[in-house]
Amino acid sequence: MKRRPLAVTIAAAACALSACGTQLSHDRIVADYNGGGARGAAAGTAPDGTGAVPTQAVGAAPTVAGPTTGTGPVTAPTAGAVTGGQPVAVPPAGSVTGAPPAGASTAPTSTRAGGPAPTAGRSGAATAACTTSGAPVVLGQVGTFSGVVGAVFSQAKTALAIWANDINSRGGLACHPVRVVSKDDGGSPANANSAVQDLVKNDHAIAIVGSMVATTVSGLQQGIDQTGVPAVGGDAANPIWTTDPLFRVEGGTFDPSLLGMAHLAALASKPKIGLLYCIEAAICSQSGPILTKGAPEVGAQIVYSASVSITQPSFTAQCQSAKNAGAQSLILGLDSSGVQRLARDCVALDYHPLLITTATALNGPSIADDPNLQGMQTTSRVAPWMQTDTPGGAAFLAAVQRYAPTLAVDEAGAEGWASAKLLEAAVNALGASARGDLTPALIIKGLGLVKNETLGGLSPAITFTAGKASPENPCYYIEVLTNKAWTAPQGSTKICGPAS
User: Fold this and answer.
1) HSE-CB for 189 with a 13 A CA cutoff
2) Which of 40, 179, 431, 458 can bridge 98 by disulfide, Cβ–Cβ 3.0-4.6 Å?
3) According to the model, what pLDDT value does residue 477 have?
4) Which residues contact 336 (CB under 8 A, 6 or more apart)?
């Protein structure tokens, strides 16, 4: 695949947003929810150690205590937030999400007092209110939701659980009640493949949504190509996302956000860059050539590069080598814990480079609280997770406030939510035909109809062409950690360069 370096311009603006909250586990959000049916009845079952991919159920849930005082990436806003809903029940590792509990009314919200008015999306005419429910539909999700990598991606599963509750409260997906089945691949490509096969053959999933498979995408692709269901949104951290026509990207693509990190270094007058990339994911090693070639075009230079492991206990040697090489900035391909250990070791050497990474790699309040990370900058493929300056961002945080009010939102959660909203846009584009049987073929058709879709401001404009792979989307967003809070200097304004 041809890739061209990114050239971008950024208008400097300051925007601060305080943050507090406690991480609410996905397991808690789905804890007491029974997805219904033979498979849904097993919700909450823990992995049995046999290597089978675990399954679990999510939907409306028990009451969850309100927000607690503390510091975290963000607290969902109270102003304008939806109130009175039942906090989400979130599935444990390998889970099912979204169908109403056994015995609960399946009448869509729009048939009851206070139900939503017809809404219009960019991808189609106004959606009429539901007067009857269509056949329930199952959506699958595959990701590495356990282990070291799982800690980074877990909130994408939580966000999909929240979305399932939200869409069902609005009458369902084109009036079809939704159940989401999430499966943990445990970091194994073979498990990712078998998870897709199981979701399609046994759960009858019509699409795989919000896949977080940075190290297992080859297995996901096998399953997707063999079953013919579309993969709608996910981490997008591999060229597969822009070369396989069955994969659809919910925001900007990877290369522009990667090269955006180099441009951030240049804008900070710290253009000499050290690059540390993990050995656990193929995309990490691919980052080196992309940055080495593209950095000069954005006014930066790679002066040091080294492969590292996200599990290594010390980064002292790499900090010293980068310091000796004159690196003023470090671009990091590490998880949250690795970033914190590296920052600690560099500070111990009295080395204080500008730290830059992808927002998707970071999670948890401890990142915002860490004094060694203040000033760190990130790029993201969807609009900053703490922003309410777009309809899409406000709706996301309102749903979090309604169903998981103590959740400390992060970028993986924003990507999971945006993936589901992309599926919604595709279904809306189908118009009245979506009220009948929703099939993988119909979802694929709807995705091909998506044109100039921004998901309410969550994403750069998305346009797909039927039968062709997702195009490179040359836009990204930026975030800065300052005074123990994540802020977005540009708000939800995207930064774009030429397509790769």
Assistant:
1) 11
2) 179
3) 95
4) 151, 152, 361, 362, 363, 364, 366, 367
Identify the segments of the chain with pLDDT beneath 50: 1-96, 99-126, 499-500
| Axis-axis angle for helices 254-267, 282-294 (nearest 10) | 50
Do 212 and 231 meet the contact criterion of CB atoms below 8 Å apart?
no
The two tokens of residue 218 are 């080859």
* Token pair recorded at residue 475: 């836009």
Burial 251-290 (b: 16+ CB within 10 A, else e): bbbbbbbbbbbbbbbbbeebbbbbbbbbebbebbebbbeb
* pLDDT computed for residue 498 by the predictor: 53
pTM here? Answer: 0.79
Q: Which residues pair with 485 in a beta bridge?
A: 482
Number of H-type helices and E-type strands within the chain = 12, 18
Closest-CA residue to 422 (of 394, 446, 391): 446
Burial degree of 468 (CB within 10 A; 0-12, 13-18, 19+): exposed
Distances (CA, A) of 195 to 32, 56, 143, 170: 23, 13, 9, 29
Question: How far apart are alpha carbons 348 and 336 in whole angstroms?
Answer: 19
Q: Which token pair is 102?
A: 């056994």
CA torsion through residues 241, 243, 245, 251, sign: positive
E strands present in 336-376: 354-358
- C-alpha dist (Å) from residue 373 to 52, 152, 377: 38, 17, 9
The three-state secondary structure class of 428 is helix
Q: What is the pLDDT of residue 255?
A: 85
What distance, in Å, lies between the first and last C-alpha atoms of the chain? 9
